[in-house]
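Notes from the pairing session

We agreed to fold both candidates in a single pass and log them together. This is the raw record for the first candidate, unedited. Please don't reformat it; downstream parsing expects exactly this layout.

Candidate A
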Amino acid sequence: MKKILLTFLLSIILKFCIYSQQYYQIPDSLASWDCVFEDYFNPGVYDLKRYESKGDTIVNQKSYIKIYSTLKVTYNRADPIHPNPYIIKPIDSTKTLYRLLRKTNDQKVFEIIDTTEYLLYDFSLKINDSLKIPKTDIYYYKVINIDSIQINNSYRKRIEVITNFNGGFDFNYYWIEGIGCTSGLFAEESIQGEFSNWYLSCFKIDSIVNFSQGNYPCYDFSNQSLQVKNNVIINDIIIYPVPIVDISHVIFSNNHKYRYFNIYDVNLRKIIDSNVTNMSEAIINRIYFKPGIYFVELIDYAGNRSTRKINVE
């Protein structure tokens, strides 16, 4: 009897600790979320999106956190020939305002999508409570469990939710106080297509890792230090693989700002002279080159030139 009573009291104490602990808000600034999409049809190929909080703004007399999209890139970690990872799609490092979030003292987080405000998270929900998924009419979250998770030296509430996709309840994942959803900060975006492929791989505050999971946790993809082996990066274009041994690809950014793409040998003789207006990709064929050092030249519409050395084997 005493053992049963003790177990009961411990259960009450544990639940009290979970529900009475400090509530952690989404950070206003210096926070970053890396969200990864793994391609089931191409194992080892994954997309990475980074969001960062950068201060606040006022909309309709309410304060919102500004969330910026600061990095989009596709990597391949399954290629048996090239050291991993290597880039297979262009880097989009344009820092654009992506979404506005509003946090409240009653443990709710709202977002603005196309001028409409939606409830994104509600950390005051109890087991069996439900919440409509933003921008949908029939899909919603249902809370099935509430516990705590240790983040560094503190405990935060973690809510396990399930969704009613595919005509029934499936897709279990978690909301974590001050971080968001384990399938990504804006989990509802993953409803389009394979929802379960997306996950939050890394969450940092002031460059300090607070949470990580999955196959690609917390790699340093900062724009300043992004130098990936077997690639040549010139401003915002990528040439891969290098050295050139067969066919190499030239990936241009989506802003189409370059007009000419040229290649010179060490004697400054022009080997390739290409007009790349509105092109998103080109190839370099090894058969047109002798082994040695060459120089790639990019010329934009204003006549500005950028050059980089490449090797041909």
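Candidate B (folded immediately after A)
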Amino acid sequence: MTAHRVRALLALSFALAGCGLPPAPTPDEPIANVVSVAGRTPNLADRRTLFSGVAESTPIRWNAETLIVSFAKLHDDALEIRRTSGELVASRAWGKHLGCAIVVGSTLHVFGTTPDQQALVESHSADLERWSDDVVVRRAARWQGLWNCSVVATDRDFVMTYEVTEPATHGEFTYRVARSSDLTAWSDVGRLFSRSYSACPTIRYVAETQTFYVLYLENPSPGTWSTFAVRTRDFVSYERSSAPVLEALDSEGTNASDVDLTDAGDGTTTLVYLTGHQNGDGDTRLASYDGTTRDFMERLFE
């Protein structure tokens, strides 16, 4: 869910349940090196509401069609898959939220967070009807809360960005990075991204340049949330585009968060994002970019 104020309060209570878990990260842990560079905001078209209410969503390509995989708001339990028209294609009662999705071959893999923010789990399906049993792929360290995640394939493995709150971040939302060869066993790489608010990470990879791009949420002024982008090859040193990826229109409130995207198969890119005021209100919306995902990412750093 995008209600980070609510989430911060919940994180404090969940952190008290850290007994028996690995030692917590420490406040003196090194963080990534981030330098700002000039950039340009891509022009988006056809910004419209997919459905009323906020739910983290991932656009995917499935059988030559763009579908939107949505994860229910906090305390809800539905995983819903829609066409871009809004038509419901499939749904299941899953009991996980703050999720993401990735298609590998002919299988859809979904990842979601348990309601206590203490584990990330994976499940998969080849037909959107029959689903595998849940597998816990990451447990929170002591005093740590786990929130949004995003997974991308490279030419040799998979990389996940996962949002955390922990002592090393002084309670702020930021993200860590992990790699896996099988989508099940994950090992951390790189550094903690920041000790400042940097939430809702979505990761994408451009194989031709071996560059990772992460879209994430900043709080540039009180009561305003906008999405920005960084790029990296090692998750230690990053460049941050000075141009925002997405800002809320006047009609959308003060929040433009949880941006995710996919190539639409026709040379354009489909984006999904959430609006409102970071208090649980708002809509799940779509937008279109006239170019590929690679074009979109590289334009941010022109």
